[in-house]
Amino acid sequence: MKKMLFALLILLCIITVALFPADLFLFAVPEWVIYSLLAAITAVTILIFVRGGAKLPVKIVSVLLTAAVILTSLGGVWCDPYFNNIYFRVTDTPLTEPYDKRLTAAEAASDLDYAVKYLVKCHPALRDGLTAEMRQRYDRVRELTDKDGGTTVNGLARYVSYIFSPLGDAHTTVSRRYPAPLYLKHYYRFKSAGYKVSAVNGKTVKEMLETSRDLYSFEAESWELECMKNDLLNLQGLDYLGFDVSGDITYTFTDDAGSELSETFSSDDFVTYREYIEFNGEESVTPDSGEFVSYSIDEAESLAVLTLKECIYNDKYQKCLRDMFTEIKAKGIHNLAVDLRDNGGGNDMTAVEFIRYLDTDGYKYASETQRLGIFYTPVSNDYAVNERYADLLFTGRLYVLTSAGSFSSAMLFPQYIKDNKLGTLIGEPPGNDPNGFGEITGFRLPVSGIFIYVSTKRFFRADKECKDKYVMPDIACDADEAVNILYDTIREG
């Protein structure tokens, strides 16, 4: 009897511990499953004491094993921000339910509570729970769903954003991955002629930015516009913004000279992305469809330009840097620019690796602390020793090009250059606050399939003395003009 009970205890402990890597990489493990296993482990341990006739060493081992598994398991459920997250699953990630699917009040409430649960569990600013304003918004949303008998999936996404937005954290946001989103097939005709959307159904973009602030999480207003751009051009996004997509939609387009064009479209003019490409041709695909990292050299201007569309740190990135700096040295290039415009971020090791080619002993670094349930990790060091590549050090003039679409790690990169006086920034301020939040974890709401992303870390700017809210360019200009300004600056010496 005692051997069977002890073997059962070992088996239950192994299963419980194994469920955590399974949850991380394979499938979501409901919390009740963990709690049930811990209850079974506790019950077996008690039986070992009262019915197993076990000797004292076995009892001691049983108690220690049970305590260790219970503490680590509860720590995982309560403190690990990646428990039940969707990031590392090797299986295909399902999509959000259709935007116009109707949810009952009970279904909407279930997803709202799920979203708030993981928001409060993981976000560094919410260890004590929702703020008063966020609680009021939650209560208001529950009243509306009860009164209306539910809402659509898009409506629920609006409600979740309404609750999240007071944090002013662009990383803590809502993502709608709808099946087969429908895009305005005629947009490329206007875009290629130099026009941008300036109004929809007579409502200007500026007015929409004012009335839709609760629909997006942002720190810089420029990032709100970046978030809205895609929604303005697809049917599901227009519905999210509150437009009636069952009728005609009138767009107003404006070019840089102020010339306006207006045209009315029906729902038939919105097509899948594949149909959009077929309608407009491959040239309608944005340049972002190319390599994430590349470089070019203009020997006449003694200029090398590294173009980084995503902050991906891998062998390809490291090889590209080494190849570029090798060619820079061989050709005696005196100017180097890093183009981070519209780079949405990724791994900040891209900046660390790049700085290894610069002639500096060390540099101020963004420090951070992470939320782990009721705990915070100690604030990290804010100075890094530069492990230089002495054979390829660049000692010329460095420039970094940024836009409002430069975000997260693509904000950290120019921050390190500016705060350590390693180069000159040209363009627009990146889209988030250097004294903000990041390092997200992600969850899928069980009923609607809406995805939420929640920050787990708080960051502190490398230059602690700087009072700027954003990483401000040294030479401010429209991002589209950054390359021209770069060449002008180089020529002026």
CATH C-level label of the domain at 288-432 and 470-492: Alpha Beta
Q: Helix segment count?
A: 15
CATH H level, superfamily name of the domain at 288-432 and 470-492: 2-enoyl-CoA Hydratase, Chain A, domain 1
- Dominant shape: globular
- The strands making up the biggest β-sheet line up spatially as 10-11-12-17-18-21
β content, as a range? 15-25%
Q: At CATH's second level, what is the architecture of the domain at 288-432 and 470-492?
A: Alpha-Beta Complex
Largest sheet: 6 strands, mixed
Gist of the model:
This protein is α+β, with helices and mostly antiparallel strands and 493 residues long. It has helices at residues 2-25, 31-50, 56-79, 105-122, 132-148, 153-164, 187-191, 205-211, 221-231, 235-240, 273-280, 315-331, 349-355, 409-419, 482-492; strands at residues 102-103, 151-152, 173-175, 183-184, 196-200, 203-204, 249-254, 260-265, 270-271, 293-298, 303-308, 335-339, 362-364, 367-372, 375-376, 383-385, 397-402, 424-427, 437-444, 451-460, 475-476.
Tell me what you see in this structure.
Among the domains are: 2-79; 183-271, Pdz3 Domain (Roll); 288-432 and 470-492, 2-enoyl-CoA Hydratase, Chain A, domain 1. Helix content is 40%, strand content 18%. It contains 15 helices and 21 strands. It has a 6-stranded mixed β-sheet with strand order 10-11-12-17-18-21, sandwiched between helices. Helix 1 packs parallel to helix 3, helix 2 runs antiparallel to helix 3 and helix 4 packs parallel to helix 6. It is globular. The termini are far apart. The model has no long low-confidence stretch (mean pLDDT 93).
